[in-house]
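In this supplementary section we document a worked example of the pipeline. Step one takes a protein sequence of length 280 as its only input; no multiple sequence alignment statistics are reported here. Step two produces a three-dimensional model, which step three serialises into structure tokens for compact storage. The input and output of this example are shown verbatim.
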Amino acid sequence: MKRPVIAVVGSSMMDLTAYADVLPGPGETLVGKQFTTGFGGKGANQAVMAAIAGADVYFVGKIGKDVFGDSFLENFKNRGINAKYVERDDEPSGVAHIWVDGTGENRIIIIPGANHKIDKAKAAEAIAEIPDLDIVIGQCEIKQEVTLAAFKAAKTRGATTILNPAPFEPLSDELIAHCDWIIPNETEYASLGQISANILLTEGEKGVHHLNTGLRVAALKVTPVDTTGAGDSFVGAFASKLHEGAEVAMKFGCAAAGLSVTKKGAQSSYPTYEEIATLS
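The serialised model returned by step three reads:
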């Protein structure tokens, strides 16, 4: 069977993560347990998971001319992701400051940096020329006009478009009209309103629900350590198996996400293909 060709148009972030049993309140200083630096960004996370799940993946984005940018390119190479359409900018690479408490829940502040300098025309050109393109994935960590341009180019080619509307912002009617699938969590879905698209609602420990058909897939029963990047792992894994049908893709995505929360970090927590396949 042909490997699906997926383009992810999105963000790269360097995750700067602090772990503590209890997170500080306003004006409070607490001693944490651990600090890590790791690869993140919703776009890059989804691209990495899609590659792990067996797709041929292209990343379309922008990074800084700094040490983080150098590291992103090396990571894409190591993960087997085609970085032909990754440009560099004088604006610093994006970073995410992440706090994780003793239950595995997180709070995140992102500084987009170069991610907000992606040119919409160049993004559309990339989507227009990637060979044998099947799926284009977008999120809301880059400017919506870039995602729209990419999705328009994708639909011209007959490719499937998947939008993960996170971090949430109001979506234009035009963008919604170019989405085949929208994958929100419960908070994001509550803000979407009534829209016409395939809605795949991710419900954390309850699993995932395809609202259009009523199909549900349960989440793995695990003890979470860190939920950072779990939603992205679902999106990437789901997209890579969508050619085998929605139910297969949902099960594979749930297995990937469930395993990811049992380890710390975003991309560093992602399981192998074999580990996912065993549980899906």
